[in-house]
Amino acid sequence: MNPLSAAHLQLTRRQFFGRTATGLGAAALGSLLNSDALGALAASGHGLPHFPPKAKRVILLWQGGGPSQVDLFDYKPGLEALRMQELPDSVRSSARLSTMTSTQKKFPILPALKPFKQYGRSGRWLSELIPHIGGIADEMCLINSMHTEAVNHAPGVTFCLTGSQIPGRPSMGSWLTYGLGSLAEDLPAFVVMTSSDQQKTCGQLFYEHYWGSGFIPSKFQGVRLRSEGEPVLYLNDAPGLDRTQKRALLDDIAALNHHQLELHGDPETDTRIAQYEMGFKMQASVPGLLDLGQESPATLASYGPDVHRLGSYARNCLLARRLAERGVRFIQLMHGGWDQHRNLATQLEVQCRDTDQPTAALVHDLRQRGLLEDTLVIYAGEFGRTVFVQGDITKIDGYGRDHLGSAYSTWMAGGGVKAGTAYGETDEFSYGIARDGVHVHDWQATILHLLGIDHERLTYRYQGRQFRLSDVHGQVVKGLLA
Fold this sequence. Notes:
Elements: H1 3-10, H2 13-30, H3 35-41, E1 57-64, H4 69-72, H5 89-92, E2 116-119, E3 124-127, H6 131-134, E4 140-147, H7 153-162, H8 172-180, E5 190-196, E6 223-224, H9 243-264, H10 267-290, H11 297-302, H12 313-325, E7 330-336, H13 344-368, E8 375-380, E9 384-385, E10 390-391, E11 399-400, E12 403-404, E13 408-413, E14 421-423, E15 425-426, E16 433-435, E17 438-439, H14 440-450, E18 460-462, E19 465-467
Parallel strand pairs: 1-7, 1-8, 4-14, 4-17, 5-6, 5-7
Antiparallel strand pairs: 2-3, 4-13, 8-13, 9-12, 10-11, 15-16, 18-19
Helix pairs in contact: 9-10, 12-13
């Protein structure tokens, strides 16, 4: 369907008069209130939040490739006695697997590579590979009973971030900025940063639909901050164009675009107006955002030595805190390198070393600055890994674990979650859910709930149907809430 035709078809009589009244009212109020007050009043045009939120913003720490819950989060001491024994067919046949182990004849059980330890007052059992994350155990709400239908990377990521395994729907950050509006005046409401292990062992790509706006207006899509070259493409002016000239040029372009908007009502014209204005503001705000010279030596050291490397996960974690301070609504860090089919024995430790300290430092930093209480930090991947060995265990670089969607772990901190707890249980093989399962749609519904949104009521009508992030499923998991 033509997007312009779709926009016209979606405009009901009630919406027409509602928009007209809002526009006239905002114009009248603009002469009485300062811009800050007006911006706060009009932050959300959808009557949201539906109820008082626990969190104002989200930092999503996406661990692309599928971190192994067996090795990091889901403590199964009984597996040691079963080392290299065959995983029972009755267990293995209960879960859908990728085709990468379809020709495998044996499925020997491999316990966690490194010992687990108890951390914090809560006594949470976590791998010694992640001691810094262990240091925030009392802030974490660990979910050991996540499950999903997806068993391949791109569909799995797409499912978690958009509610469908098929690309084309709005991402989580787009839904939140569409529903709640922006907290910042000079930065986008939704910012994305990407990183990968330095060895580039993970071949997974970061597709733009992971932060796209799908069928809702594109002004709600994520803006990617790049680690090389210009942080944002096409942000800089041409040589010889100063700020005064740029302002005059944008005013003239805006007048033309507003005329087009009045004539045709195309939402993408409204997006174009907003993008020009945001780009102008970001020319002044982005250089200061990226200047880590404003941080104390102690703060920089807390994120680890990699914080000084452009494009590193550590640097992106520190930038996430700076973005949160500046009012960015949804901050999405995407880090690749967890797809360990053949290199588990070597790469798991490397990946933990790269991500463990910065992740914990971010949570500590937010807490020290009074931001953790209303910031929801989410650590997640698209699925987990099998307890059985994939490949040849006699070769240090020849074995790993296959994808597993039937049971895996994620965690959250801050923003109204029940700190210092673990929710749900898997079976003795960390292969299926034994108690209190959390489906991806339940996870999405709970995240929206923490931001004051009823997941069944945040919808967008497209091609004759009301769409939502959680599709037609999902229940808020009350056991995760403080």
